Amino acid sequence: MHIHQNIVAANQVTDFKKYSTHTLYSNTCKVRAIAKRCFDLMVASSILLAFSPVMLIIALAITLEGKGSVIFSQQRTGKNCTPFAFYKFRSMVPHNTPSTKLDYVRDTDPRITKVGSFLRKTSLDELPQLFNVLKGDMSLVGPRPQPVCHLEHYGTKIDDYALRHSVRPGITGLVQISPLRDADEYFEDLVKRVKLDLHYVSNFSLEQDIRILFITGLKVVNRAKKLL
Question: pTM value?
Fold first, then answer.
């Protein structure tokens, strides 16, 4: 499968229906897609069951720390460029950021709470996305979902940017297990991240998903150990 055979016209960037990549990968093996979905449902359900006590403790800690909702929800771009409600544990003080504004959050951001800092460093803030997986908005593995404004902003600047939306976005992916995860938000780094996402899209296999999940787990454990 060659990604560059399917270039989406740049002037369609602001129209989600026209910009849909639904037909770009019509030759993708349906059996693999079904296997991936079944795998997602099985693993996501198991993780939710195992981590439910931890999630309750996190919810209590966020509530005790200050005002604001436990869950942070934001519109992100999903499969076929369709927006969906993306969930995370709230790690910042309540604030209003326009959905059209590119808002990059770094570890030194003063809006991050004490509980939120721990959650972000251990990736525990991502646990609510397991519900996104069960709903079908996300997969365990895939390109990370970005705010809707990213598609409008980068769709005409980075080649084949929209093709990363031809699959369900993931909780983790190739970018998250690479050094690019911690790279600054420079344009050159974003281009490299998109290339990794497109590599995943065009070379999907369940074996690769399992490998990415395994490496992600090791990285999360190592980050948690450094905090102890």
Answer: 0.83
